[in-house]
TrEMBL record:
Protein name: Coenzyme A biosynthesis bifunctional protein CoaBC
Superkingdom classification of source: Bacteria
Gene this protein is translated from: coaBC
Gene Ontology molecular-function annotations: FMN binding; phosphopantothenoylcysteine decarboxylase activity
Signal sequence coordinates: none
Pfam name, any one: Flavoprotein
UniProt GO BP: coenzyme A biosynthetic process
Length: 248
């Protein structure tokens, strides 16, 4: 019987709070979630994908990742496999871009392509958070159904005091669990599993198998849980750049 574990798409953007996202990815993985991490170019200024790969045991994606994953455009595949899209930390830049409907990189593209709930956890300087442009963007996104958690108040790394700190990781985890509980994802029926495997088999046989880092890492992660079938994972082709080059 297939044990269907919810997938959390964790978007990570260019904030000093980026390191706390590693703890979040680690906690989610330990609790049984599959965690797909997508880092923006901004996030890569602070941290490397390997930090996330080491705790999620899965490939982390960037704008340099191959454009095709499991035989589909990477932003569509990641958007559709996600049970929830969480961006933590979410910069003013990410919030503004999403409010404007921009698809300028992998993360902003999949945010437009997903049907899953979206949870943003902002982190920024207090005056940035209070700026009318940011306030308007947050209000607009909330009207569209995007959920926000935080920021909390405190002493920020820039030295100012006030709202702007990333919401505490354990409370972020609790919020994700509330929105996508493990219990809502019981083992699938053998009938559905058979259909899914047949579909995956069809797709994977038409694609090359070599040099597929994400396939190998995701299989490793899947095998860690008892009851999980050895992945009949889909493949990606290392031939294309991300869906769009970063604007900066
Ligand atoms: C040291 C440093 C720290 C930063 N911290 C933040 C932050 O906490 N929140 C934020 O909104 N922007 C912050 N920025 C600005 C963003 O990194 C910048 O807007 C970047 O373009 C964001 O790109 P991204 O949203 O694609 O990751 C910081 C910049 C620097 C140089």
């Amino acid at each position: 019987m297939k044990n269907s574990r919810p997938t959390v798409l964790l978007g990570v953007t260019g904030s000093v709070a980026v390191f706390r996202a590693i703890d979040l990815a680690s906690q989610l993985t330990k609790e049984g979630y599959l965690v797909d991490v997508v880092l923006t170019c901004g996030a890569l200024q602070f941290v490397r994908p390997l930090s996330f790969e080491a705790v999620t045991h899965r490939c982390a994606y960037t704008d340099q990742s191959p454009g095709i994953l499991a035989g589909r455009a990477i932003h569509i595949e990641l958007a559709e496999r996600a049970g929830i899209v969480v961006v933590a930390p979410a910069t003013a830049d990410l919030i503004g871009g999403h409010a404007c409907g921009l698809a300028q990189d992998l993360l902003s593209s999949l945010l437009l392509a997903t049907a899953a709930p979206v949870l943003l956890a902002p982190a920024m300087n207090t005056r940035m958070w209070g700026h009318p442009a940011v306030r308007d963007n947050v209000a607009l996104l909330e009207r569209r159904g995007v959920r926000f958690v935080g920021p909390e108040s405190g002493l920020l790394s820039c030295g100012t005091e006030g709202p702007g700190r990333l919401w505490p990781v354990d409370q972020l985890y609790a919020k994700i669990q509330e929105l996508v509980p493990m219990a809502a994802h019981p083992p699938d029926s053998p009938k559905r599993e058979g259909k899914e495997l047949a579909a995956l088999g069809q797709r994977s046989s038409s694609l090359p198998q070599e040099g597929d880092k994400s396939k190998e890492m995701n299989e490793m992660a899947d095998k860690k849980k008892p009851g999980k079938k050895p992945a009949v994972r889909k493949t990606e082709k290392n031939s294309k750049k991300g869906p769009a080059a970063k604007k900066k």
